[in-house]
Amino acid sequence: MTRRRTARALTAFALATLPLAATAGELNILTWEGYADPSFIKPFEEASGCTVSATYVGSNDDFAAKLAAGGGVYDVITPSLDTVGMMRLAGFVDPIDTAAVTGSDGVYPEFSKHPEIVVDGETWAVPLIWGSVSVIYRPDKVTGTPDSIGVLFDPAYKGKISLWDDKSAIYWTARYLGFPNIFDLNDEQLEAVKAKLIEQKPLIRKYWSSAGELTDLMANNEVWVSNAWTGLTSKDVNALGKGFTVAEFSPKEKAEGWMDSMMLVKGTPNQECAVKFMSYMQSPEGQCGIAKSTGYFPVNPGAVSSCMDAAMKEERKVDNIDFVKSLVMWQQPVRLDKYLEVWNAVKAAP
Amino acid sequence: MRRPSSSMLMTAGLFSLPLGWALLLLIVPYILMIAVGFWTRQFPLFVPDFQFGNYLQLFSDPQYTTVILRTLKIAAMVTGCALILGYPLAYFLVFTIRSDKLRNLVYMAVIVPLWVSYLLRAYTWKIILGTDGALNSALMSLGLIDAPLDAFLYNQTAMVITLTYIFVPFMVMPIYAVLENIPKGLIEASEDLGIGPLGTFRHVIAPLSLGGVVAGAMMTFCLSFGDFVAPVLVGGPDGTMVANLLQTQFGAALNWPLGSALATLVLIMVLAILAVTGWAERASARNLR
């Protein structure tokens, strides 16, 4: 009797732990700040049995650098659309069986069928979130209502300006100088951009290389104006209650747009967890979770229909994919190496 | 053929591990680094090659010379500041403090910061030097300034302050060691001959402590020359140093060939500096004899 009860208890215990043991795994994501917030990652870990650890990048150029330095560390990466093609060409990623990713059919086709994502009938990425890069500023310090990129070059704010430490500094300057072909500038235009950026250097307090750093710079009164990942820094700074608030605007020279998607690192041993994660991020919990923790726009309008109110849907451009047209969507520069060289030359200049 | 003697076997056994370690983890990587310096960057990665384009780029594009010169300048300034602060401190420890207990305590106080994470110490300087930082608050409460000054943080001065603070122990330690080993009899003899404290310092203590100064200066110089954290944390837009360039080439720019060429160049420079200081040290030692 006792023995049978013990056996039964053991069986129950084994059965209870079995599904957990069978699915327990880990998932290492190389991603952006705010994309692995505990608010939505914890529920995923509990539901899937996959333990998530995240490493953050400061720019799209960090993905290839980290993957080239040695594979086997990351399972999922989330580069922007302009870097997706390079990941594929460099052989860092495997194609994805979208049939296995639940909910991925609800993504805006403008994103999910994009020529960078579907190549020769194979899908290389699952869209995650999109948004813009605009100008963040202190209304109590900046006079009037700025509407131009010019505020980033205004000597009136000498020592109070910041800029993202990224090749996109070239895009911003090119738009300011009125060059329309910002992803395919010729040598002469690049020289003009470089000269303008070097001329701007005395006005710059610090180039920021992570959203956390920009939040620090804004919150501690170090800078009053910068370009910023729309939504994230303003939300974080205003939440600190520093006695001032920050605001954002899309400059008349246009703001930049981006779309980040999930890619599967080549030969990952944690493919099961990776696919579960991709599915989860298309669910209401995933899409609303990441939208709330970042301030960015969901890619799956169906998924957020139940977890966002009308005001938030309006703000986050749900079912308003046409908003893309008001942005300069990032593309890989035709001469990527040249752009990086120019940006490095600007940073190295006295 | 003679059988290897047991002592030879023992020698081989004793040194095979450190020699193997040096070969595998020092010599081979250096050879690889030098080799990759001749490769070619080709989108999306790079391909093996043998060409001098990377070196040509390093010498023709002014950005690299600018940064190398700036790094030399910062490292020299840090070494100078560390010497000005570190030598009197070591002198004070050895000759002024009479109690052994107190001396050990102060010496430990100089060394203890090395146990705290470098990042944390550098970050602390951000809090001290910032616009809303401790220094500005203090100056404002003293009524010396009306509005916070931007001048303390995010520039080369902040980098020199931070690096000096961090590397001063490396200057103090070797100087302390040589000062402590100067036979007290020599100093007494000098005093007995009627030479004043300044003269004793100039003719006895300073020459005998030169070895420690050279060792400390060399360490401080090399450590600050290769630093990449201070520019990122407290440096401004004009703070890029050589190590940051290396980081960029191996990181965002994904140009390992150019990065390797630059690293080789830096290695040659450091070896040259070591050779010159080593030669200077030997020359001064000969003069003493």
From TrEMBL, chain A:
InterPro entries: SBP, Sperm_putr-bd. It comes from the Bacteria. The keyword Transport applies. GO terms for cellular component: periplasmic space. Pfam families: SBP_bac_8 (PF13416). One of its GO terms (molecular function) is polyamine binding. It is found in: Periplasm. Residues 1-24 form the signal peptide. Keywords: Periplasm, Signal, Transport. GO terms for biological process: polyamine transport. PANTHER family: SPERMIDINE/PUTRESCINE-BINDING PERIPLASMIC PROTEIN, SPERMIDINE_PUTRESCINE-BINDING PERIPLASMIC PROTEIN. This is Putative spermidine/putrescine transport system substrate-binding protein.
From TrEMBL, chain B:
It is a multi-pass membrane protein. It is found in: Cell membrane. Keywords: Cell membrane, Membrane, Transmembrane, Transmembrane helix, Transport. InterPro entries: MetI-like, MetI-like_sf. GO terms for biological process: transmembrane transport. One of its GO terms (cellular component) is plasma membrane. Residues 68-277 form the ABC transmembrane type-1 domain. The chain crosses the membrane at residues 12-39, 74-93, 105-123, 158-179, 210-234, 254-280. Pfam families: BPD_transp_1 (PF00528). Belongs to the binding-protein-dependent transport system permease family. CysTW subfamily. This is ABC-type spermidine/putrescine transport system permease subunit I. It comes from Rhodobacter viridis. The lineage of its organism: Bacteria, Pseudomonadati, Pseudomonadota, Alphaproteobacteria, Rhodobacterales.
